[in-house]
Amino acid sequence: MRLALVQMDCTPKEEDNLQSALAFLTQAARKNADLVVLPELFNTGYYLGNVARQARNQAGPAVLEAEASRLGVSILAGMPQTNGGKLYNAAHWFAPGQAGRAVYRKNHLFAVGDVREADVFTSGASAKVVQAPFGPFGVQICFDLRYPDAARLLARQGAQLLLYPSAFGAARIHHWRPLLKARAIENQCFVAGCNRVGTDDMKFGGKSTVYGPQGELLGELDGKEEGLLVADLDFRQVQKARSGLKLW
Q: Fewest Cβ atoms closer than 10 Å to its Cβ: which of 71, 110, 114, 182?
């Protein structure tokens, strides 16, 4: 399958973010991507003080549902979700011809200095594997990357690809690649981190990255510029890695 990661800057205006994302989605479709990933809270930006207000009236889910069908690509996007009076930092899944749905709510909420997600979001529960036409995958969001047990649970459930839509800060971007690589090696699967660039409540570090099931680097973007990273994944490599070295 062909995976595309969108590394983009985000503004406080959802309309601007959607226009930017749609341009990248069109580019990815032209490159025959099967799945396109957008960063954490891509449509609202990481302006935590404004997320709740924007989440109530966000256009992102309807727009991406339509674009998935129009372009014939699947999309995984980080967006807020309101449910039962609570607000979640969620990952939403859109497949051609299907209704969009939130498939994961961020479990481990980030808290450093004045940036405290728990002041805005409710913590989610354990993730479930998504059964997609191209293969089973699992989703975590940004800070979840630091918790290896969550990734192992998804691998045990059959995930062959772990996806991390993120807004990972530039101050700790030197942790980003080692953590992604470790999750790939530990779980003998493909791992992809889709990070954003730019600045709002903090500065973000980019470096969207894909690793293979042996920890091999398959592609990476830089830490400052917007861009599209495309990588071809052969899930037979997952089975080969897991049958050759049994880790669980």
A: 114
R_g of the chain computed on alpha carbons:
16
CA distance 5 to 194: 6
Residue 114 belongs to a domain with what CATH number?
Answer: 3.60.110.10
Q: Report pTM.
A: 0.97
Q: Are 169 and 203 in contact (CB under 8 A)?
A: yes
Residues 6+ apart with CB under 8 A from 113: none
The beta strands (E) that lie in the chain are given as 2-7, 35-38, 74-83, 86-94, 101-105, 111-112, 115-116, 130-132, 135-139, 161-165, 190-194, 197-199, 203-205, 209-211, 217-220, 227-232
Confidence of residue 220 (pLDDT cuts 50, 70, 90): very high
CA distances from 187 to 23, 138, 151, 181, 235 (A): 33, 12, 8, 10, 13
What are 213's two structure tokens?
């099931």
Q: Report the candidate in 36, 42, 39 with the shortest Cα–Cα distance to residue 16.
A: 42
Tell me the CA end-to-end span of the chain in Å, nearest whole number. Answer: 26
Quick check: 213 and 188 in contact, CB under 8 A?
A: yes
Q: Which of 212, 210, 213, 232 is nearest to 221 (CA)?
A: 210
Would you say residue 143 has pLDDT above 90?
A: yes
Tell me the residue range of the domain where 94 lies.
Answer: 2-244
